[in-house]
Amino acid sequence: MGSDLHIANHTLESRAADLAVSRARYGHAVSGTNDGIWGWIPATGEDYLSPRGKQLLGYEDHQLTNVQETFFERINPEDKALVRRAAQAHIDERKPFDVELRMRCKRGEYRWLSSRGQAERDEQGQPLRMAGSIADITERKREAPFALAFLERANDGATSPARAPGVADTTGESA
Q: Is the pTM of this model over 0.70?
């Protein structure tokens, strides 16, 4: 019996060490992305937003509670239906959950965020929980009109032949 207890204790210690390594690896990966992590249990409404996720909105970890309303009440009213449809389509139809939305920050301004996630399901295919990441894409959204205008100007130039000044083309016209 003592030998069985020793083996069980050794196995438990080994698994605890493996878990510590796994947690450290996860922590390094998350901190390296600069993204927040979220989790949601649809059946209970329990919600989790990592300290980094809360920081993206201007909050300290202790300033926001981990309940569903904390997340959903901060979504821009114009984006709420989109987020709900995307979550429902992921749960019901297994479509990818990948949305861009605006969320209200602590100071009242809205920031653009990209949220992606995946449901974990039981044996019957029912969602047990969803988890994913949230990234601040505000700067990309602000720069998008400028990038689009640049591409449009570049494409306009691509439709007409480029010639150096004073160089004739095959029709004899000079630039």
A: no
Q: How many CA atoms lie within 13 A of 142 on its CB side?
A: 7
27 phi and psi angles, rounded to 5 deg: -60, -40
**What fold characterizes domain 35-154?**
Beta-Lactamase (3.30.450)
Residue identified by tokens 């901060």 is: 74
Q: Which residues contact 94 (CB under 8 A, 6 or more apart)?
A: 119
| CA separation for the pair 117, 105 (Å, rounded) | 21
Other beta carbons within 10 Å of 125: 8
**Interval 31-76: pLDDT, tens:** 556 899 999 998 888 899 999 999 999 999 999 999 888 889 999 9
